[in-house]
Design goal:
The chain is mainly β and 131 residues long. It has no helices and 11 strands. It has strands at residues 3-7, 10-13, 18-25, 32-39, 46-51, 59-60, 68-73, 78-83, 92-100, 120-121, 125-130. Strands 2, 4, 5, 6, 9, 10 and 11 form a 7-stranded mixed β-sheet that branches. It has a 4-stranded antiparallel β-sheet with strand order 1-3-8-7, with no helix packed on it. Strand 4 and strand 5 form a beta hairpin. It is globular, with a radius of gyration of 14 Å.
Length: 131
């Protein structure tokens, strides 16, 4: 059974830090691009960050560049999202997502990253940033 289990969410003050974890199981972790999406109330879901098995040039949405860092631990089949200097606009439900890695995706104009939202999803975890 495929599982993506998020943890580490919660309430944090603006300017603070939080680290999300996504523990993966049930599929070949080293064959998948894994990343984070988020959805705030009344807003569309957006891709936040994505890392490929090559671990080169991770994707970051412009809104989080310089503040968030994605990393992976293959031995633990876990992806992390370190969130620094968080802002109230970072408040959302954060979802872990995994797609079978395909090198051609990053060059395709329709996709922003290798995490296309097609294969596996976690249930999501709430992050709330207070001002």
């Amino acid at each position: 059974e495929v599982q993506l289990v998020e943890s580490g969410g919660g309430l944090v003050q603006a300017g603070g830090s939080l680290r999300l974890s996504c523990a993966a199981s049930g599929f070949r972790f080293d064959k998948y691009a894994i990343g984070w999406f988020r959805q705030a109330p009344g807003k569309e879901r957006e891709g936040v960050s994505c890392i490929t098995p090559k671990d080169d040039s991770p994707y970051y949405a412009d809104s989080v560049k310089g503040r968030f860092t994605i990393s992976s631990d293959n031995a633990k089949s876990t992806v992390y999202l370190q969130m620094n200097n968080v802002k109230p606009e970072d408040t959302a439900v954060y979802y872990c997502q995994a797609d079978l890695y395909a090198p051609w995706v990053a060059a395709h104009p329709i996709y922003k990253s290798n995490c296309r939202g097609l294969d596996y999803w976690g249930k999501g975890i709430q992050v709330t940033v207070s001002s």
